Automatic annotation (TrEMBL):
<dbReference type="InterPro" id="IPR036770">
    <property type="entry name" value="Ankyrin_rpt-contain_sf"/>
</dbReference>
<feature type="compositionally biased region" description="Polar residues">
    <location>
        <begin position="17"/>
        <end position="35"/>
    </location>
</feature>
<dbReference type="Pfam" id="PF12796">
    <property type="entry name" value="Ank_2"/>
</dbReference>
<feature type="repeat" description="ANK">
    <location>
        <begin position="96"/>
        <end position="128"/>
    </location>
</feature>
<feature type="region of interest" description="Disordered">
    <location>
        <begin position="1"/>
        <end position="35"/>
    </location>
</feature>
<dbReference type="InterPro" id="IPR002110">
    <property type="entry name" value="Ankyrin_rpt"/>
</dbReference>
<protein>
    <recommendedName>
        <fullName>PGG domain-containing protein</fullName>
    </recommendedName>
</protein>
<keyword id="KW-0040">ANK repeat</keyword>
<feature type="repeat" description="ANK">
    <location>
        <begin position="130"/>
        <end position="155"/>
    </location>
</feature>
Length: 155
């Protein structure tokens, strides 16, 4: 089904961004490649490669509310590729501090929300860099089923 919730429509190709100079002098050099998701700049791609931030494909899988099986497959794929265990993958965040639970909840991905809080219930209380929990993002986006799932802890 199409609609405004579709993460594909909110995803744009990596683009160059300009970094403001923080020291004397100016720099016209573009900074590293970044991805733009839902209108926000995310994931300096070199930081994704060194494990600092969650991979873009993991973000996209968590945001896709139509395919929880694909979400699980992507987690397994990343675990195998990078020799990471589930807890290491689940603890990765976006540059804004959003966990996989934040991403899934903000996109109304109830099945993935349920899987995540069953595997790692501590994520329910985890705040991003501005103090929002997954519940806050789900409420702001109006995802009632996700809100209910979060309130009941996946039960």
């Amino acid at each position: 089904m199409g609609g405004s919730d579709n993460s594909e429509s909110d995803w744009r190709r990596p683009q160059k961004s300009n970094k403001a100079a923080t020291t004397s002098g100016s720099s016209d050099q573009p900074s590293s490649e970044t991805a733009v998701i839902n209108g926000e700049t995310h994931l300096p791609l070199e930081d994704e490669a060194n494990g600092k931030y969650m991979p873009v494909k993991l973000y996209r899988a968590a945001a896709n509310k139509d395919d929880a099986d694909h979400f699980v497959h992507v987690i397994e794929e990343i675990a195998a590729e990078k020799s990471l265990d589930l807890s290491q993958i689940i603890q990765q965040v976006t540059p804004l501090g959003n966990t996989l639970l934040h991403v899934a909840a903000s996109h109304g991905n109830e099945e993935s929300v349920n899987l995540l809080i069953t595997a790692s219930p501590f994520l329910i209380a985890k705040q991003n860099f501005v103090g929002d929990t997954a519940f806050h993002l789900a409420a702001r986006a109006g995802h009632q089923l996700v809100i209910t799932t979060l309130l009941h802890g996946g039960l």
